[in-house]
Amino acid sequence: MPYETMLYYIWWNDWCHNYEDKETWNYFKNKSFDDEFKEMIKRLYITQDYNPILFVEHLFYNDTLMKTSPYCLQYYLNDRLYYIVPEKQIHYSLMKSEIIVRIKTTDIVEREFDGDGYIITSEVQDVIKGKIIPTCKDITIPDTPDEYVRPEPYFQINEPGKCFQFVFNNKYSEDFLEFGQIGNEYIVFIDLVPFYADSHPFTLCTDSLNNCYYISKITQDPYFGIYYIFLIKNDIVLDYNFLLNYGDSLLTYNEWRQKLQEKIDEILNKNYTSVDDNIINNSDISVYPNPADDFIYIKNKDLIDYTISINNLLGQQLIVKKSDNVSNINHIDISEIPSGVYFIVTESAKSRKVVPIVIR
Questions:
Q1: What is the CATH number of the domain that holds 313?
Q2: How many folded domains does the chain comprise?
Q3: In this predicted model, what pLDDT tens digit does every residue of 40-90 receive, in sequence order?
Q4: pTM across the whole model
Q5: Which domain holds residue 296?
Q6: From CA 44, how far away is CA 48, in angstroms rounded?
Q7: DSSP structure string for 94-127
Q8: pLDDT tens per residue across span 92-113
Q9: Exposed/middle/buried for 345, CB within 10 Å: 0-12, 13-18, 19+?
Q10: Band of residue 148 on the pLDDT scale cut at 50, 70, 90
Q11: Looking only at Cα atoms, what is the longest distance across the chain?
Q12: Within a domain: residue 35?
């Protein structure tokens, strides 16, 4: 994981541990489109793009120490973004979607009970957002509405990032008639929502999770009026909702993608300095060695009672221990922790400090 992305996860977790839900809401409800807000948008986009599945798992993770949930933080930011950002439709679409891909419908299978619905498999041809795309898997299809069993495989690709599978709950839905044509190509903006969330017309099943993900409002968001699917016909993007604001001038896919990339670059290619990054102000604490193998040492300049924890990128605590009041140097055995990127959190009655670390 890039160092920058890791720091953004740290910022995300630190906010959730330090600010109450009401404080977060009050902060965003009056926020202007200033450099601080633009930096937050940039951080959200980068963490989504690096690994959408990890991002959504983090989004819906909530431990007992969090004062506000990661999901609420994202929701308040996106809600405010829609009302204050110029060209709100495209910016909101870019931020609301964890994955943006060009796909081609390759297979349609009727579901088994009551002839109610279809499974549609689509090959991924181009990825615009979401560097890690899930692998298709065998979909669990119910024999009856109340029983779920694993059928014989209908379709499977073992290579990661090659296809999406969508489940239509209604055989005769208007969405299916538009989407379920073999050979058709589309651009889809995918907002991943966990299995336990409210039902949506499509389901994305992945290898990397133990359950399925619903694709939220892939055709249209009725609240904001934003489309998430665009038909490509004869290499022309049928952008009748004018997502990119080019009126009646329809663009080829490459032209449309370039225009979209320009909007993405507006988010990513600026550096803002007004964001409070006190969460990674670690001058009072040092961790060594870093990268580490079996042990790490934590040195704090203040001889005070504090708690040391090692956390993964979801904010889950893997190790927790109290500091040694006799010495300002503490050591932790990390030999049982898998290789990867983590962060050390030291917390006392007066402060909370975060330091990233790589375990080899």
A1: 2.60.40.3080
A2: 1
A3: 899 999 999 998 878 877 887 767 778 888 889 998 998 898 888 777 777
A4: 0.70
A5: 281-359
A6: 6
A7: HHH-SEEEEEEEEEEEE-SSTT--EEEEEEEEEE
A8: 788 888 889 898 988 777 765 5
A9: buried
A10: very low
A11: 74
A12: no
